[in-house]
Amino acid sequence: MKRYHPLLVSIHWIVALMVLLALLVGGPALAELENSDPDKIFALAGHMIWGIVIGTLMIIRLITRFSTQTPPEADAGHAMLNFGAKLAHWGLYLLIFGMVGSGLGLALSADLFAISFGSSAATLPLDFKDLTARQAHGLIANLLLLLVALHLLGWAYHQFIRKDHLFRRMWFGKRAE
Ligand code: HEM
Ligand code: HEM
């Protein structure tokens, strides 16, 4: 098996784009907006939908990952690096689910679904910063950003130093050897 399943490949790239946008653009812009800003509720609704779509795609991706054949483990040339890559890949799944979980926790603890999507007349708290789920969401966002940067470094190492065309495994094409 030379490549990942095309569904896994598609979801890898869609989720990569969606997560990077949420981490670098959407999330920080949302956090900048004061809760008293009239645009905040609309922005919250958009970010929550975006995050839930990421979570749903990740569940489909995980099911595809376990139910399809994957290429043999890539060789980075050192047992420690190979172990690190495996750890990083599962870490990416874990942290993304951590983002979605803490986001949902935050939404539930501040009643954001009723405020953003329902007809609730309740208003937003002054800010979210004292909520544990908010603190976790911010912390996990930083960890995820760090791990994505490491993941990119891993890719660059394979691409430019080992020159083993690892990228092809996460792209479309003939899968059989
Ligand atoms: C937020 C962004 C990203 C996330 C969350 C992510 C996540 C993952 C995960 C979890 C895997 C392991 C395969 C699996 O089990 O599904 C993987 C593999 C891979 N990713 Fe990413 N990725 C991201 C961005 C990128 C980018 C920007 C590149 C390249 C420029 C890239 C290149 C690859 C390659 C080449 C593989 C295959 C590695 C192998 O065959 O061992 N990824 N990615
Ligand atoms: C992988 C998915 C997600 C990513 C990458 C993401 C990313 C972010 C980032 C980067 C921030 C700003 C953090 C900071 O500056 O400290 C943020 C804030 C926030 N996110 Fe998410 N998020 C995701 C999913 C969700 C979900 C599913 C929900 C709710 C259902 C949610 C609700 C929120 C809320 C309420 C805030 C706080 C805004 C504020 O402080 O005013 N997020 N998110």
Report on this model:
The protein has five helices and no strands. The protein starts with 5 loop residues before the first helix and ends in a 15-residue tail after the last helix. The model has no long low-confidence stretch (mean pLDDT 97). It has helices at 6-32, 40-67, 79-109, 112-117, 132-162. The chain has one domain (6-170). With 177 residues, it is mostly helical. It binds protoporphyrin IX containing FE (HEM) (2 copies).
Observed structural traits:
metal-binding; single chain; mainly alpha; heme binding; binds protoporphyrin IX containing FE; membrane; 177 residues; 69% helix; Cytochrome_b561_oxidase
Identify the bound ligands.
Answer: protoporphyrin IX containing FE
Number of separate helices: 5
**Given the helix and strand composition, which structural class is it?**
mainly alpha
Q: Looking at the structure, what is the overall shape?
A: elongated
Topology, number of strands:
0
Integer average pLDDT: 97
Note the main sheet: none
Percent in helix: 55-70%
Short description:
One of its GO terms (molecular function) is electron transfer activity. With 177 residues, the protein is mostly helical.
Write the layout of secondary structure elements.
Blueprint: H1 6-32, H2 40-67, H3 79-109, H4 112-117, H5 132-162
The protein binds protoporphyrin IX containing FE (HEM) (2 copies).
